[in-house]
Structure formats: C-alpha cells, structure tokens
Design goal:
Layout: E1 3-8, E2 26-27, E3 30-31, H1 32-43, E4 48-53, H2 58-65, E5 74-78, H3 83-91, E6 100-105, H4 113-126, E7 128-134, E8 139-143, E9 146-150, E10 156-158, E11 162-165, H5 166-172, H6 184-191, E12 197-199, H7 210-224
Parallel strand pairs: 1-4, 1-6, 4-5, 7-12
Antiparallel strand pairs: 2-3, 6-11, 7-10, 7-11, 8-9
C-alpha cells in the first residue's frame, strides 16, 4: 500500500511566549519539526509527507530545515483557522494513489518508528488505528452536582499518529466542522466508523509548554544511552 503522512503544524505556536514558534524550538540543536519529520522518513524512506504550516512560516521552514530535511522532501500545505481545516487542506491534496495516511502532530517529535509501524499495521488490517496509553492518575468526573470518581481503566489518553484508509478519511472530512472535533478519530467516528486503538507510548508527548520541552530533552538524551 502506498503511504502518506500529514504532519500538522498549522498553528503559529506562540503560546510559549518564545521568540520563535514552538514547532521550531530546538531539542539538542535540532528543530522539533525536523525531528518529527525525520521519524516518518526513518519509518518509510518512500513515504509522501505533507507538512501543514501557516503560510507565513513556510519560508522559515525552508530556511531552517535544510540541514536535516531535503528541501523538496515535504509538500507544504497552508494551515487553516482550526486544526480541522488544516488537516482538510492536506487531505484535499492527497493524490489518488495514496492508499493509507497517517495524521500526526508536528510537536510530537519523540514518537518511535515502532509506534508508527504498529499504527500502519493495525490500520491496514482494520481500517484505522489510533495510539492510546493507560491513565495512571486518579480521575474524577465533574459536573453541576459536584464530582465523583471515574474508573481510570475505562479511560485512555489518545495520541497521534492516527492512521486511516485514505478513502475513508477523505469522506469523513467532507462533513461540516463541529467544535467537538478534537482529533481525526472524532471526525471519523462521527462519520460512522468504529475506532481501533493501538498501543501508544508514554514518551510520545505533545510539546506545548517549556516543561514539556525540558522533559523531551531529557527523554531524548535517555534514549541515546
């Protein structure tokens, strides 16, 4: 099956308050987004990669990435106002010969090649795959009546890459935008497809704060030992 990956970095990434968008902050000298893209190339050197960026950051990507990523390796797609529209822009540009596609957060650079492979294998067999990990903390459900314990065994933390048969995800993204779409699995589920969970990884964190960035540096250095 011919594979593609949509790597979503369509936000401006300014919530950290850093001088540069968070997807370009370095981990051990390498921009986060370059680390993320490299993982998919390591998984499949022939994979087609669509990189979703704000139009205003495309030139910056080409400037800072060339040391690690060949300049023509990624097809650049403009981001949208919401993540849904960023992904849709990429999906609408998928060639007809792509059979299966992964959609991944650009700021999850520590995903392993094994995790990517598991998700593609599960999706090939069952139509889609979403990586998930167990919850270890105690949970409480909060509503207008107060709070009550929630069985953590019945809850999972969802990650990316989320992998889908291309024809299915193309059809799912023809639906109107819904504010309850938190990820691609929720789009697919509203379209009427059952979601299959694959084993995720605790280290596959999403970098949104400086604490996350420091933890990612720690994990990356641990993995090198």
């Amino acid at each position: 099956m011919k594979r593609a990956a949509i790597i979503v970095a369509g936000g401006k990434g300014t919530r950290m308050g850093a001088d540069i968008p968070k997807q370009f902050l370095p981990i051990n000298g390498v921009p986060i987004l370059c680390l993320t893209v490299s993982k998919f190339i390591d998984f499949d050197p022939e994979i087609t990669i669509f990189l979703v960026l704000p139009t205003s950051l495309m030139a910056y990507w080409l400037q800072v990435s060339t040391q690690w990523i060949p300049i023509d390796r990624c097809k650049l797609i403009p981001g949208g106002q919401e993540r849904f529209f960023s992904v849709k822009n990429a999906i609408d540009n998928l060639p007809d010969d792509i059979d299966i596609v992964a959609i991944h957060d650009g700021v999850r650079p520590l995903v392993s090649v094994n995790c990517i492979a598991r998700c593609f294998t599960e999706a090939t067999l069952n139509g889609n795959a979403v990586p998930a990990v167990d919850v270890v903390e105690s949970l409480r459900f909060v509503d207008s009546n107060g709070s009550r314990p929630l069985d953590r065994k019945s809850v999972k933390i969802i990650q990316t890459p989320q992998v889908f048969i291309t024809d299915d995800i193309k059809k799912a993204y023809q639906q109107p935008y819904d504010e309850h779409f938190t990820d691609d699995a929720s789009v697919m589920e509203k379209f009427g497809k059952k979601i299959n969970l694959a084993q995720g990884e605790k280290q596959n964190i999403k970098i949104t704060t400086f604490d996350d960035l420091q933890y990612a540096v720690y994990l990356l250095n641990q993995n090198k030992k």
